[in-house]
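Shapes recur. One chain:

:::
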Amino acid sequence: MSLSPPTLVWFREDLRLADNPALAAAAKAGGPVACVYIRETGLAGARGMGGASKWWLDKSLKALAAALDTRGGQLVLRTGPAEAVIRSLVAETGARSVVWNRRYGEPEKSHDADLKAVLKADGLTVQSYNARLLMEPWELKTGSGGYYRVFTPFWRALRANYAPAPALPAPARLETIKVESEALDHWRLHPAAPDWSSGFAENWTPGEAGAQARLKAFLAGPVNGYAETRNRPDIAASTSRLSPYLRFGEIGPAQIWRAVTAGVEAGRIDERSAEVFLSEIAWREFSHVLLNFNPDLARANYNPSFDRMPWRKDPEGLRAWQRGLTGYPMVDAGMRELWHTGWMHNRVRMIVASFLTKHLLLPWQAGEDWFWDTLLDADPAANAASWQWTAGSGADAAPYFRVFNPITQGSKFDETGAYVRKWCPELRKMPDKFLHSPFDAPDAIRKAAGVTLGKNYPRPVVDHSSARERALDAYNKTKEEQAAE
């Protein structure tokens, strides 16, 4: 048995053993390692997880506990204020060191800094690490010393300055002091009333092993078409689907970066697809930079001129959007995919977000809230930054006058119609010409396809052309008011 004092490892958004710097530091210290996940309470201003994220957390914690168990370790589950829980575990285990990997949102970031000071005052050694990002949000600076507000120059700077540190292997064996743990099932993270997660398990395997399997499968072939197919939801393997694993830290962006660059160097992955794919990892990174310097990113307009935007109140329209009953097949397919699988293709995310904020003229926060509850990958940085980008209020945002046409977007990116036919099966017999606009089809064609608008498929909740004009009028009015001040 080791004579070195125990180290307490606090797991948070880093639910993996490999390439986990906090866990690696604890193992290197040579003493027993106590691993804990805390269901935190009393953290004022913290945003609770949505239902889909809780489902994933439940399965991910089970996978992490099993992986630790095979190495002689234990995942301790506790509920309460982090300070009280950690102090209790320090007393129970005799730990003299506490380590964790950093969080970047608020109030978590400030709370962690305060907690570190408190524990150091108790005489403990406390160290935090970066396991979630390629680089710390404050490391890349513009020529004027600020943070990047435009993605393309950020991506160029990241590409020029980032080199991954050597990979950290998972500990082969852990010496552990066993302590009492709460039962995960008592946390009731699995959704109920209703349990709308039946499709999740069909599509996902939460945990570190699932993340590695997903990465391996994507890099084994589909990545080589990524530059051409990433906008095609009708092609099943058009994207990596790694986002939920990144959200929970079951895989880190550095691990993905190493694997992709190794594939390029070995000639297995073409450089263009690799660059496009890594730029998507960089968008997540950029979102965290924005969150670090704008902690209210999920609530407040990044561009304050949008505070004047005359958003509408339309509970029925919002409900139709949430349920996938807008009458626009590409929008409806996306929202139904989200509800069934806890995930949505990125191109379709942009289409449905544009529809909510521009066709329905509803505030982006309403969509961000819905995604937060229903997305398995509901990341506090990427979810908010992406919604603001599409709405036009964000950093480096799409111009507000860019209103995605759900009909032409469907025809272009669901070229085969496979996506809409899968998620809107009532339209499966519609000919390709009218699949994305069944309301334009002659009555005889709709009848032959078994489609009756208003009965088995909804009529459009808004007319595209008039909704677009309404959105542009609202935006122009906002600009005029701002100019008049």
In short: Residues 73 and 128 are 21 Å apart (CA to CA). The radius of gyration is 24 Å. The chain is about 45% helix and 5% strand.
